[in-house]
Design brief:
With 426 residues, this protein is of the alpha/beta class. It contains nine helices and 20 strands. A nine-stranded mixed β-sheet has the order 1-2-3-13-4-14-18-16-17, with helices on both faces. A six-stranded antiparallel β-sheet has the order 8-7-10-5-6-9, with helices on both faces. Strands 11-12-20-19-15 form a five-stranded mixed β-sheet. A hairpin with a 2-residue loop joins strand 2 and strand 3. The longest helix is centred in the middle third of the chain and has 16 residues.
C-alpha cells in the first residue's frame, strides 16, 4: 500500500532533522531550536525557572528535555514522559587526533558503542561535535564531508568475501587528506567550520557521522534509509508530537526527554541513569507547589514511553528471530517485551500502549527476542528504576541496526509520531 503524503512529508522532515544532528550535541541543540521556533521558552539550569504553566526546553550537554505544563496543572498532576536518546554508535576523535603515514593524513579515532564496523567503509564521513574554547565558550562544529574509510581492494585480499573482520585500532583510522601529518592539524578543520581559531581549542567531544542525507525509496516509497535512526527517529517523533501538543483541561504534563550516552550504558550526567530528568521534574513540581509527597502522588499515575528502535525480521536471516513474533517494516510501531526486564513493558503497560495506538488510529506489532539471541536494553528499565514511574518500551522496527546507514519504514516513522501525540494527551 502506498504511504500517505503526510508520512512522506514526515520522512523528509526527519531527513532534515538527522542532517542537522550529526552529533548528540547538535541533536540537543536542534531539539531546542525547533521547539523555540514553535513557541517554547529556552531555560538554563543556572537560572530561576517560571512557576506558571507554559512550554519550556532545557539543554544539558548532549541531552535535551522539553515539557508543556497545562495552565490548570496542580501539585499532583501526572506526567507523560516520551524518552529517547541522541547518541548513535560510531567513532569518536581521540586526543592528538592528527595522524597518518606514507603520504596520507588520517584521523585517530576510538570506537564509540557497538557499531557495525564494516558498514562505515567507503562512505563520505563528517566530523561533528563541540569545542570548548579558551574564553569559556562552547561552540558546535561540523566539517561536512571530510573523511573516508577506504576498504582494501579484493585483489589484495582474495578471501575477503569469506568474511571481513576489521582490527579496531589499525584498520578503522579514516583518511582525510594528503601530506605530512606533522604539518597538518585536523582540529584546524573543525575550528574553521565553527569560525574559531584552532589555537583557542582547549577541549573537544567530536564524533564521526555519515554525511549522506536520508532518502525515501523502494516500491510505493515504503523505505527510509539514513544514518543515526537509532535513535534520532524517536527523538524526532517526540519533537514533532510536542510541537503540535495543545493540552486540554485536566491534561497531564507532557515531557520529551532526549538523553545522551545510551549506547554506552547511560551512566553520565546527561544520560538516563544520571540525574537530569529527576532534576528537571523536581523543579517543575516545585514550581507547582509540590513537596516530595505530592510529587510521588503524581508519579504514581504517570507514564513513560521509552522509545528506541527494534529489530524487524530479516528476510535473509529469519532464524535469528523469534519463530512466531516477527515484526516487519511498514506494519506499525513495536511493543518491546522481555521476560528478564531488559525492556520495562508489563501487562498494564501493554494495555495502555494499545489504547494510545487505537486512539491514534495506528496498528502495532510486538517484538520479543529469539531465546538464543539475547536482546539489548534501553533507557526504559533505567528510568523506571530511578523514578518509579510505570514504563513501556516501544519503538519502530528497522533493519541494519547500528549500521552507518539504517533502514526504516516510512509509515512506521509517521505512526510513531501519531502515537506519541496520543500519549501526550493522557
Amino acid at each position: 500500500m502506498p504511504v500517505t503524503p503526510a508520512a512522506l512529508a514526515h520522512a523528509e522532515d526527519l531527513a532534515d532533522f538527522v542532517a542537522a544532528s550529526p552529533s548528540s550535541y547538535h541533536a540537543a541543540a536542534e531539539v531546542a531550536r525547533r521547539l523555540e521556533a514553535a513557541g517554547f521558552h529556552r531555560l538554563h539550569e543556572e537560572d530561576a525557572w517560571p512557576t506558571t504553566g507554559g512550554r519550556f526546553v532545557v539543554v544539558r550537554d548532549g541531552a535535551a528535555i522539553a515539557w508543556v505544563v497545562p495552565e490548570d496543572a496542580a501539585a499532583t498532576t501526572p506526567v507523560q514522559i516520551f524518552g529517547a536518546h541522541t547518541d548513535s554508535p560510531g567513532f569518536k576523535l581521540k586526543p592528538q587526533p592528527t595522524t597518518g603515514s606514507r603520504g596520507w593524513l588520517q584521523a585517530a579515532v576510538e570506537v564509540y558503542g557497538g557499531p557495525l564496523l564494516n558498514s562505515w567503509l567507503d562512505r563520505e564521513l563528517r566530523l561533528a561535535g563541540r569545542l570548548a574554547l579558551a574564553d569559556g565558550r562552547v561552540v558546535l562544529a561540523d566539517t561536512g564531508a571530510l573523511l573516508r574509510l577506504p576498504q582494501l581492494a579484493i585483489h589484495l585480499d582474495r578471501g575477503v568475501n569469506n568474511g571481513l573482520a576489521l582490527d579496531k585500532q589499525t584498520e578503522t583510522q579514516p583518511v582525510w587528506g594528503l601530506g605530512d601529518p606533522t604539518e597538518a592539524d585536523i582540529l584546524a578543520e573543525l575550528a574553521s567550520s565553527a569560525g574559531v581559531s584552532a589555537s583557542d581549542i582547549r577541549g573537544y567531544d567530536v564524533v564521526i557521522a555519515d554525511s549522506a542525507r536520508g532518502a525515501v525509496f523502494g516500491k510505493d516509497n515504503a523505505f527510509f534509509a539514513s544514518g543515526r535512526l537509532d535513535d534520532l527517529a524517536s527523538v524526532h517523533a517526540g519533537v514533532v508530537a510536542l510541537e503540535a501538543h495543545a493540552p486540554a483541561a485536566g491534561a497531564p504534563i507532557a515531557v520529551l526527554a532526549a538523553f545522551d550516552h545510551e549506547e554506552l550504558g547511560s551512566e553520565s550526567r546527561s544520560g538516563a541513569a544520571g540525574p537530569f530528568l529527576e532534576d528537571v521534574l523536581e523543579r517543575v513540581y516545585a514550581g507547582l507547589g509540590a513537596d516530595g509527597s505530592a510529587r510521588r502522588q503524581a508519579y504514581a499515575s504517570s507514564w513513560c514511553l521509552s522509545s528506541d528502535v527494534g529489530h524487524s525480521v530479516h528476510p535473509n536471516y529469519a532464524a535469528k528471530h523469534d519463530p512466531v513474533v516477527q515484526p516487519v517494516l511498514g506494519s506499525g510501531p513495536i511493543l518491546k517485551i522481555n521476560a528478564n526486564q531488559r525492556y520495562a513493558t508489563d501487562a498494564v503497560g501493554t494495555a495502555s500502549w494499545r489504547s494510545w495506538c487505537e486512539r491514534a488510529g495506528v496498528t502495532t506489532q510486538e517484538f520479543v527476542s529469539n531465546n538464543s539471541v539475547p536482546c539489548g536494553s534501553t533507557i526504559g528499565p533505567i528510568t523506571a528504576t530511578r523514578l518509579g514511574i510505570r514504563t513501556v518500551d516501544v519503538g519502530i522496527p528497522i533493519l541494519s541496526m547500528h549500521s552507518a546507514r539504517e533502514l526504516a519504514g516510512v509509515s512506521d516513522l509517521h505512526d510513531l509520531t501519531r502515537t506519541a501525540q496520543s500519549f501526550f494527551a493522557g
